[in-house]
Amino acid sequence: MHAGRMLIEMGNITERAQARDLLEEGLQPGIRLAFGSITDLIDIYNSIGPIEKAKELLDKYGDRIREAYDADQLAGVEAKLAAEIETHVDLKVDGGRKRFKRAQYPTKEAFNGPLYELFVRDVASDFNAEAARFSRSDYILTIGSCFARRIASAMREQGINATCYSLAETVNTTYANRDFFGFIAGNKGKNDQFWESELSDRSEKSRKGNIIRVVEKSSIIVYTLGVAPAFFNRDSGAFTPHSADSFKTRSFLKDNVYRMTTVEENVENLSYIFENLNSLNPDFRLVLTVSPVPLRATFESGSAIVSDCESKSTLRVAATQFARMHPGRVVYWPSFEMVKWVSPHREPFYGTDDGFSIHISDEVVSTIVKAFLGLCLVD
Predict the structure, then answer these.
(1) What range does the domain containing 36 cover?
(2) Please, what is the average pLDDT of the chain?
(3) 49, 106, 142, 365: which could join 152 in a potential S-S bond, CB 3.0 to 4.6 Å?
(4) Residue 94 CB-density burial (10 A; 0-12 exposed, 13-18 middle, 19+ buried)
(5) 19 shares its domain with 72
(6) How many domains does the chain have?
(7) SS3 of residue 37 by DSSP
(8) Where residue 269 sits, what CATH number does that domain have?
(9) 101-146, pLDDT tens digit by residue?
């Protein structure tokens, strides 16, 4: 096997099977090994597929490898594979050593297994449950989208003291929640009259004083990020709050422009929301999620699907960045990944209860909540 051909094929490898075939071909009797070390081939395979399979090839062709390499080289290859098989890699960091866990994408069999086990084992495997521990005597507040409301409802079914304050999915932006919780915390703003009117149309438990009391006694606040695009005044560029029906009026659309917000804007808004909630309750811990409920409609693109992808991606990155800014106080719960990345491998998660394409089935929401409680609830 010529070195030039081997290098070209290595550079074009896209699947594990291709890497395995190339490695096996290079180890066949009668083939002239063109590299200074067999680790070149094994490294390209290791970057794509399970290390255990590479170890099988090493065992299978051990005699062939020994013909080409001395004992020290072979020992180095075997030691490297043995370390990788433990799913850890040792790296030098600032003069010390740090261990990094290697996580692999679930198999088809794993995706088709029990949903609860899949969530805990393969989706929430990196979730910092310690930072979100609570007991049945603690109070939980969920805020954000309609998905936050369903989370609170599913928690109450499990005997948890949970309540929700939510905005409609179409208007649940970090800008709207920044505006709202600034108003709740007593900060004077130009949109206070809007929020006074918004609360006056709701039940007594959603009035300002009651919301403050709920925030003050909550051990955990679950904030579900809904959508990234929002309306801004065409002249001033300032955020414009609105009800779910505002954008249906001609005058509103004339005065305001609908645009996608940035990761930086959303991180800044999350910081402001956190500060205001903290002013009411300095002991609460924040669990961030991203709502898997799709963007129902958009004004900036010809495809709501494409806009939804950009919207959720923006919020997902912002959530991670903000959580890293507050370790121990803020954690990210991967309910979004549980739905968006798992559902293509299983039966449909959307529309199974009511035929509505943006509604997630009750069974899935219930399983997400049970997984969260299984990791965080201390009985």
Answers:
(1) 3-101
(2) 79
(3) 142
(4) exposed
(5) yes
(6) 2
(7) coil
(8) 3.40.50.1110
(9) 567 788 888 888 999 999 998 999 889 999 999 999 999 999 887 7
